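Notebook entry, structure prediction.
Reason for the run: the old model in the group folder had no record of what sequence produced it. Starting over properly, with the input documented here first.
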Amino acid sequence: MVFIQVILPVILIFFSGYIVQKIFKVDIKPISTVSIYVLMPALVFTTFYTTPLDSKLLYIVITALLIFLALVVVMMVITRLSKQDTEQESALILLTAFANSGNYGVPIVLFAFGKAGVNYAVPIMVFHGIIMSIFGVYFAARGQAGIKVAIKTVLKQPTNYAIIPAILFQHFHIKIPTNFYESIDLVGSCAVPIVMIILGMQLAEVNPRKIDWKNISVASIVRLVASPILAYFICLLFPLDPLLQKVIIILAAMPTAATTAMYAIQFNTKPQFVSSGTLVTTVLSFATLTVLLSILH
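New structure, fully documented this time:
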């Protein structure tokens, strides 16, 4: 059964963070800061250092950008029609435009398609991370501080500065001494499980009674239903390998990225609302992903 084989193992990792937070009431912000400023840059560097720049990577970049832009446009149209303010618009974009492709998507792809699927999922996850570190930070900071501060904050994100040296090292075959590379890889390999646990901890802080069900219902439909449909039609524009197409669609169907809640906490952009949306989309995704995986298999 798809749920037991693919979804349940991932839920158990989230649940461990949930239990820890319920019992010990840990301060999440310092952990999220370490994840954003140390673990994720290391993961980005090692991934681009080891990933060849070929046409498949180009298609990954183009499709990821198109899916992201389509979702932002959809959400902006909805928020303008419903006359939401800038902060609420930013929070809704955080909920809908950024998929949890890393700490949820990669494990799902691993259990569903094995290592061959993961070889596609990791570069997609990294590029989603790049989009997140630029536009996610921008929208999170824009909600409270305005556009100028948002742009300055984006320029301070270390993840953005891990990409260029990694690509240059890979392109010019500059070999990092094994002991140094293993240190970077060790730190980067911690990123996905730590962020999974952080998500579980964040979900434990959500008060179901304070959930804005109207806005979160809209965000959930866009995130879990509209996004994979958009991804499917965008994939049809390119000559993609069938497995790559499936991985792109599945990652587009993931719930809201855990990192959005971390950014919402970091920049105080409706953190309770964003965390609530992360919880709701994550719970609903157990059903929607089970259906989608059954269709794609």
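Summary: The mean pLDDT is 88.
The old model has been moved to the deprecated folder.
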